[in-house]
Structure formats: C-alpha cells, structure tokens
User: Which sequence fits this backbone?
C-alpha cells in the first residue's frame, strides 16, 4: 500500500508544481490537462489548460495534485505536509522559501523537540511543517 497526499489548488497548480520543483527539488512525473480529456466539455473554456491530475515526487515520496474544478475549491485544513532535514540551515532556508508570500503559523526556531521547527502556509494555501530533528544546540 502507498499513501500519497493529494493537493488541490484553485487554478494555480502548475505554478505551485514549478515552485516546488525549484524550492524542494520536486520531480514532476506527469501532468494531465482537461483539454483532450472526456471532461473537457464540462470545464469553462479558460480551464481547458488547467491541471486535471499531476504526479510529482519530493525526496522520493509521491504527491499528487490538481486544480479543483471551479466552485469546488476549498482551502486546505486539518493537515500539513511535513518535511524533515538533517541540516538546520537547509531546513530554515526551505522554510523561508515556502513561507515567502504565504503566512507564518510558527516561526522557524529551536524547540525542545527539534534543532529547528516552523509551520507556514505557502502562497498557494498549502500548510507545511519544516523541521530539523534532534536536540537543539
């Protein structure tokens, strides 16, 4: 069995994928668009090139994503994508890049359980937790 998060976006999925590719080193393995699919006629004309389904990996872990159909998008809640790095500086850099243009839920800093930890929601509305495990120095 494989468990993979499926992320929904409100029309900016492709931009998010390219951002995750740049920031996280994500590898986009496939993108299907509405255009040419059996549901093409159900989508507004300006949505034909939007992402119907995408698969990408981050650190070997599979995630999937799409643009939610118009009027079906809801901001994510009740979960966060958790990233853990062995190096504090790298974790903080990734955190800062993900938080840019988004919102900080908990600033990246040492905690009693980690050398560094922070929570943010990126500019696409996806919640993230970034950490560097181990006792803080």
Assistant:
């Amino acid at each position: 069995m494989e468990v993979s998060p499926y992320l929904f976006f409100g029309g900016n999925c492709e931009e998010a994928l390219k951002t995750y590719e740049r920031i996280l080193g994500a590898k986009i393995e496939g993108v299907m668009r509405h255009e040419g699919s059996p549901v093409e006629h159900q989508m507004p004309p300006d949505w034909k090139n939007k992402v119907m389904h995408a698969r990408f990996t981050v650190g070997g872990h599979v995630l999937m994503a799409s643009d939610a159909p118009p009027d079906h998008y809801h901001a994510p809640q009740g979960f966060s994508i958790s990233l853990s790095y062995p190096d504090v500086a790298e974790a903080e850099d990734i955190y800062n890049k993900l938080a840019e243009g988004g919102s900080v839920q908990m600033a990246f800093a040492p905690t009693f359980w980690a050398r560094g930890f922070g929570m943010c929601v990126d500019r696409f509305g996806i919640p993230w937790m970034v950490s560097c495990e181990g006792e803080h120095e």
